[in-house]
Amino acid sequence: MALLRRVIPSLVSISTNNPVRITHVHRPQLTVGEAKSNSNINMVCESLRRGLNWDALNKRFGSLEFSESFVSRVLLELKKPVDAKRALVFFHWSAQCKNLEHGVASYCITIHILVGARLLMDARSLLESTLKKNARSRFLVVDSLLNSYKITGSNPQVFDLLVQTYSKLRMFEIGFDVCCYLEEHGFSLSLISFNTMLHFVQKSDNYPLVWKIYEHMIRVRKYPNEVSVNVMISALCKEGALQKFVDMLDRIHEKRCSPVVIVNTCMIFRMLEEGRLEQGMLILKRLLQKNMILDTISYSLIAYAKVKYGTIDSAWEVYEEMLNRGFHPNAFVYTLFIGAHCAGGRIEEANKLMQDMENAGLMPYDETFNLLIAGCSKAGRLEEGLRFCERMMKRGLVPSCWAFNLMMAGNLCESGVVKRANKMLTLLIDKGFVPDEITYTNLISSYGKLGEIQQVLKLYYEMEYRSLSPGLLVFESLIRGLCQCGELEKAEKCLRIMKDRSITISACVYETLINSYFEKGDESRASQLYNEMVSTGLKPSCACVFHP
Q: How many angstroms from the chain centroid is the CA of residue 120?
């Protein structure tokens, strides 16, 4: 160390008489313009630090021209928190008094400075202004903030504020894209920012985006808190889906689950429904690691995925593994297998599972019966389908519209037992069943084929009473039945109703009326209808007996 003390002075104190050549370090000289610009920047900053008001600043710098570059350099000189308010004064003064329209770069530098000084309201105000101005440029603002992040010595809170501002401005899609963009650049938002996004998006009723954001949270390991879960429960309520998933979990777990389990089950189920199996399994694994979903629910969801996209055998392996690990069978999984067998036409296997389910003390529910009714209908097993429907009614349940309609269209009506179907419909309506247009269309069509016009009319008026809009099939049955009974005036009235309601008139309707008028001897009206039919582009078939 002593040697260093003696050597270092000797190296820097070289005599001018020393013949040894000395190498000089040359620093670049500032141009006159650059020197003047630096001087002006220093003068502006000094004036701001002295607290000069706008009038004094105008007098002193009124003749000085400000460029975007000049403004940015002044702002960077004032980037320390102690100068943050002065930077804001300069930003507004230069815009108002110098008629300068600030660019995105100046906005973003100022925002960084304000966030660093915890002047968040002012920062948010500037963010709102620049986001509105640049709404069409998706990543312009965030790119500028990223570019000026280091030179301003900023902190990640600026990006939380950015995304929160997007949310409050209802610019949800861009805000979420920016959130993902920031993740790619190494910046992860706070849970508060995610909750802000969830809150505003949920209020806007944009449910697909709500779930997209929630899923992204889990993917980047920002796990929800009570606020997050409450927002998602509200979204489920507004979607009308909450009861569906509460019922599903009651059948799987046989106990009421916590809100976070309900929300997470819904998310995984949606992902599986959309066919995103790999992503769904990845998210499910993370939820299991955090004890945010139950094991028995996970097994049941995996079985669901296997049944929907794989094979029954692979799903059954998952089910057996579940049982081997000590978990109890549940009605949800049984119904999955019953539905799979019904879809494959294996009604005997489905019936056996139904029996096993009941022997295990599990209660079949509406979906279980609906799948069996539909399966029996497709397989042509009328009596079994009817028995399942009757069993439902005894338990206080009613079949779904699609299952009942399938049973009528595929079996009851074609078998000529339409009266039995109509009686059953009356009983179901008394128990809360809500028929749709297809329900009535099937019955009207069947009664029409039997020539029972009074029943056809009765069902038609019942449709009108229930504010159901009769379609082409209903009017075809009506007109055919009325013509068979010789009620041509009433048939013509139905034709006028079809025209008034802009219902496309088929060749069948025209030919039924034409043939009826021709058989009655009214060739004039038959000819009018024939010409009308041809003028609409319809071609008469061989069933049309009248040809002018």
A: 32
DSSP 3-state of 202? helix
Please tell me the chain's helix, strand, coil percentages from 3-state DSSP, rounded to the nearest 5: 70, 0, 30
Alpha-carbon distances of 273 from 58, 263, 287, 438, rounded to whole Å = 65, 15, 18, 26
Amino acid at 10: S
Q: What is the length of the chain?
A: 548
**Which residue in this structure is represented by tokens 């000529």?**
416
Helix, strand or coil, per DSSP, at residue 102: coil
Token pair in block for residue 22: 């000395």
DSSP label at residue 393: H
Phi, psi (degrees; rounded to nearest 5) at 322? -60, -45
Element (H, E) at 378: helix 366-378
Are 526 and 547 in contact by the 8 Å Cβ rule? The answer is no
Quickly list DSSP for 215-269.
HHHHHTT----HHHHHHHHHHHHHHT-HHHHHHHHHHHHSSPPPHHHHHHHHHHH
Could you tell me which residues come within 8 angstroms of residue 485 by beta carbon, excluding any fewer than 6 positions away? 451, 453
Q: Is the whole model's pTM more than 0.90, yes or no?
A: no
Q: Identify the DSSP state of 467.
A: T
Mean pLDDT by 10 residues, the chain (548 residues): 32 35 36 61 88 85 82 92 93 83 93 96 96 92 96 95 96 96 95 97 95 96 96 96 96 94 97 93 94 95 92 90 91 95 94 94 95 91 86 92 84 63 87 89 81 86 88 88 87 92 91 90 90 88 62
